[in-house]
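Reviewers of the previous submission asked for a worked example of the structure-prediction workflow described in the proposal, so we include one complete record here. The input consisted solely of the amino acid sequence. No template or homolog information was supplied to the procedure at any stage.
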Amino acid sequence: FDAYSKVFQGLSASAGATFQASEHISLKANVGRAYRAPNITEIASNGLDPGAHIIYLGNRNFEPEFSLQEDIGISARYENFSGDLSIFNNNIQNYIYQSLEVDATGNPVVDPQGNRTYKYQQGKAQLYGAEIWFALHPQELDGLQFSNSLALVYGFNRNDELKDEGINGAYLPLIPPATLVSSLSKRTVINSGRLVSIT
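From that input alone, the workflow returned the following structure tokens.
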């Protein structure tokens, strides 16, 4: 390998505020910026991974990834129920990803042993979604709480060449599916005066 030396720099910061709209309702907003330097694999890969049967090609000209996220939310706290709703949007510049190398006819580039070639690329990406939490805790049923949380995330590679490509590159990998979690718990005091929680 040829000698390589480079210094990556970036600024990470965040700011947020909460506004108490009423005794029971509060509004929240945050904005944050972060960066990630490319790792050695993304920069220096240049050969076959025998276990995966894939040839990886890195790129020494990569720049750091920068992300800018905004999120807003609302919280409600009442005697018999509580809830939170937040939505977020995250735009990533210089997003690093792998792309299958293809020839002029669109067929994968392979070596004589049939190993495909993947090259690290940079582009734009976007993630957005929402988180919802809702709980019932009736005062007449002291200590009983029924909680529900829903998390939803979408991720897209925003490079122009991948527009409308769907599973062929437009969707970001490793995005978790929509997740709903519910729980029922009861807190009670036993004779010894100890607080016990059963979920």
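The beta strands are 13-20, 25-36, 46-49, 54-57, 65-77, 81-100, 116-136, 144-157, 179-189, 195-198. We consider this example representative of the routine output the project will generate in years two and three.
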